[in-house]
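Weekly structure sync, notes
Attendees: PL (lead), two postdocs, one rotation student
Agenda item 3: pending single-chain targets
PL asked that the sequence for the first pending target be pasted directly into the notes so everyone works from the same version. It is reproduced below exactly as submitted, 306 residues in total.
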Amino acid sequence: MRMLSTPQSKGNKMYSIQRKFLQRLSAACPLCGLTARGGDLCAGCSSDLAGYLDSHTRCEVCFEVLLLSSAPVASAEPRQTADTSRTSHTSHTPHTADTADTAEPLEAPGYSAGAPAVRCSRCQCCPPAYSSLVAAIEYAYPGAMLIQHFKEGARLAHAGLFARLLWGRLRARAASRQHNAPVGVLVPIPSSQSGLRRRGFNPAGELARELARLSGYPLRQEWLIRTREASTQKTLDARARRNSVDGLYVCPHAVPPVWVGVVDDVVTTGSTMDTAARALLVAGAAGVIALAAAHTPRTWQNDTYD
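Predicted structure, written out during the meeting:
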């Protein structure tokens, strides 16, 4: 069984040594305050958050909970490339339904045969520009409190916590599907100027930096830039969100044909990720994997961060 391969560097090795040292130190659990180690969640909170994600079958692409219509049977599907994703934004129609989706079993693009993956009917019909989404936690109680403390309470140490949770989920998924993850570069979603002034930092950038230290993947913040300021998306529905971010990001130069992990703090409708992925694909990226600290369930999408 092949495990997730990562670039080896001095920084990556030093991070591992540092984590081993910190794991010996007692600390309060960031969520409940009980005894934990090294800034991680306690066993109970870790089990609760993981159980919330793992208790449902999810769409490989959009991460939404699925109602399977039949037992999973793997079927081959060609690997996604930039040529299959460079369609215009106006011709793309992302999801809008409000209920759980049914699914047909498929092999996820970009992965070799192994445990079967499934995609919802909407992602089969109108897939986003990114190949799949992986999130560390669900943006729902109690995990939503961690996101709020991170973004609005400037708990920057939470970036490392989310990076470790996300990296663990990536490694587990790689092992279960017997493949090497295609990610070769990490690129954070750029923050708005108003967000930087209010918070003093870019949450997606902090998460990407910690994930790069942990994984050894190179960080390329300059591969995405914003073309303009945009209004907050907190009160917008899915259609309004898509219109709000249309053309919001560009890649200012050609990039090598590598798979890019685009990192954001919270993914809600996926409109931001879709726009960013399209910009990178046009610039030459081989494909895009969406990586997030949290994914917002559709039932919570009128009260979210994005």
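Discussion points:
- Residues 157-177 form the longest helix (21 residues).
- Residues 103 and 121 are 6 Å apart (CA to CA).
Action: rotation student to compare against the earlier draft before next sync.
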